[in-house]
């Protein structure tokens, strides 16, 4: 995409504090990070907003912005520990602009091989002179050049503090993870498995897509060829025949087939959650916390393309903003069999809808620890107390939502997290407290998929190549 094309798309360019348009990618990242620290916008929203505002830049420049912005947010804890080690002072005591410039500089030195350390240092000094107190540019230069020197020698130590204990060196993926979370996963999975999980969550993930409308082989190959001709690296998914991953992408909305609804963004884990329902055609499906709509879309698509067609999807979420996203997606994907409404999943089920659902999808609000690769800051927003609160909310919603389910109907419980309290413990609670019967998932999922334990499946990035995701299947007795 050329600068001229991007400039003509009607998007407002990013602005500096002085009101001028941003022309440099590092400046765009600095402005975004300062906004993030002040407004605490979710990182995935911030990245999209920043890239949209930098539509006048080249694809290469925008890719640099995405990499640096996501990386600084994701590794904030590790970067701040390094700043503390090299300056002898808390990051909170630094000028806000200097704090962000140091984070950006260290990330480039340690994790962006294509950026020479000298360039990272020089650009940081220029940024300090332009945006922060100019007198601190020498301080910035000294800190970054010391880190660059040690990085070249391989002597940079990544230390963390565990409570009041002394600092201790740890692998880089642990240094970027809250200690309580590393401990929880070590307890639940074992040390070796937890380390593999944390390393996988730090990897840069491709875009996951689902091909829509059950395309035949000719239609499939034509679409994939058009994506490749657009410069996209397309790879086949591991578990589902309609799943593919995309690399070297810029604006997804401009790629072949998107506006026509021939494909949509959806992780393979989310697709498997719908496959676990075992739809045969003609079912009434309820999705109680549906936004942004991926599972509703897949269920509706499947109902349309199964022999005989028929059936419908009823998608609910709490606010108009969320349901409008579902409506927009349903229009683009040409899915007239989705009915969308605003509804609080905790309020009593309308009497006329009790027992209406053949399939009930309950992908509920959760800690989101399985999607760190897409929402880089979610680990800093989670906590043990937050997980306990979410578990209580999940059970409140389940207690109410199960009334939608008819006798003999199927409930699919799922989350995009890796947390025993929200996953396996809730599955046991559904059986004990709601009286639903666990059903074996194996008839509905790919043969030989690891981690399947009867009615439950915990998907893990380092094992399955998907988001961290949990699926459990139950049936309401006749």
Helix content: 40-55%
Give the distance, in angstroms, between the N- and C-terminal Cα atoms.
57 Å
Count of alpha and pi helical runs: 19
Given the C-alpha coordinates, what overall shape results? globular
Q: Whole-number average pLDDT?
A: 91
Based on helices, strands and strand pairing, what is the structural class? Answer: alpha/beta
Describe this structure in words.
It is a single chain. Helix 3 packs antiparallel against helix 4, helix 6 packs parallel to helix 8 and helix 7 packs antiparallel against helix 8. Helices cover 45% and strands 14% of the residues. It has helices at 3-7, 25-39, 43-53, 59-74, 76-87, 96-111, 117-131, 137-153, 172-175, 179-189, 191-201, 217-229, 268-275, 294-305, 320-332, 378-381, 384-401, 424-433, 461-464, and strands at residues 159-160, 168-169, 207-211, 233-236, 243-247, 263-265, 284-287, 312-317, 338-342, 357-363, 405-415, 437-438, 452-453, 456-459, 469-475. Strands 7, 8, 9, 10, 11, 12, 13, 14 and 15 form a 9-stranded mixed beta sheet that branches. The longest helix has 18 residues, at 384-401. By secondary structure, the protein is α/β, with parallel strands linked by helices. Strand 13 and strand 14 form a beta hairpin.
């Amino acid at each position: 995409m050329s600068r001229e094309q991007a400039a003509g798309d009607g998007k407002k360019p990013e602005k500096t504090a002085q009101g001028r348009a941003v022309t440099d990618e590092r400046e765009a990242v600095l402005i975004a990070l300062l906004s993030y620290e002040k407004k605490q916008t979710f990182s995935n929203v911030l990245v999209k907003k920043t890239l949209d505002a930098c539509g006048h830049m080249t694809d290469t420049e925008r890719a640099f912005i995405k990499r640096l912005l996501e990386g600084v947010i994701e590794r904030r804890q590790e970067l701040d520990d390094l700043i503390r080690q090299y300056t002898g002072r808390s990051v909170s005591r630094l000028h806000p602009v200097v704090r962000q410039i140091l984070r950006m500089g260290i990330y480039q030195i340690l994790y962006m091989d294509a950026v020479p350390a000298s360039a990272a240092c020089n650009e940081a000094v220029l940024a300090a002179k332009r945006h922060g107190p100019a007198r601190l540019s020498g301080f910035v230069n000294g800190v970054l050049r010391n880190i660059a020197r040690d990085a070249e020698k391989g002597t940079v130590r990544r230390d963390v503090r565990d409570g009041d204990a002394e600092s201790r060196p740890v692998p880089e993926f642990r240094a970027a993870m809250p200690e309580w979370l590393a401990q929880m996963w070590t307890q639940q999975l074992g040390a070796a498995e937890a380390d593999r999980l944390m390393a996988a969550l730090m990897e840069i993930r491709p875009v996951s897509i689902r091909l829509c409308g059950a395309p035949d082989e000719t239609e499939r190959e034509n679409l994939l060829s058009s994506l490749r001709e657009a410069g996209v690296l397309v790879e086949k998914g591991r578990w589902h025949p309609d799943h593919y991953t995309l690399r070297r992408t810029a604006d997804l909305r401009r790629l072949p087939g998107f506006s026509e609804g021939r494909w949509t963004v959806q992780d393979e884990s989310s697709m498997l959650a719908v496959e676990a329902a075992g739809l045969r055609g003609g079912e009434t499906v309820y999705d109680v916390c549906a936004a942004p709509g991926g599972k509703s879309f897949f269920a509706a698509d499947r109902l349309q393309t199964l022999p005989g067609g028929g059936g419908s999807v009823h998608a609910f979420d709490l606010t108009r903003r969320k349901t409008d996203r579902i409506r927009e997606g349903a229009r683009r994907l040409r899915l007239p069999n989705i009915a969308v409404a605003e509804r609080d999943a905790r309020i009593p089920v309308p009497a006329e809808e009790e027992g209406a659902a053949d399939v009930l999808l309950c992908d509920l609000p959760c800690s989101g620890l399985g999607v760190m690769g897409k929402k880089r800051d979610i680990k800093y927003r989670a906590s043990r107390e937050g997980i306990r609160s979410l578990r209580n909310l999940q059970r409140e919603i389940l207690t109410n939502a199960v009334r939608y389910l008819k006798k003999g109907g199927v409930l699919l419980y799922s989350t995009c997290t890796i947390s025993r309290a929200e996953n396996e413990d809730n599955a046991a609670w559904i059986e004990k407290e709601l009286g639903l019967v666990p059903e074996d998932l194996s008839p509905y999922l790919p043969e030989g998929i690891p981690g399947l334990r009867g009615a439950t499946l915990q998907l893990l990035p380092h094992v399955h190549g998907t988001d961290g995701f949990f699926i459990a299947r139950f049936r309401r007795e006749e």
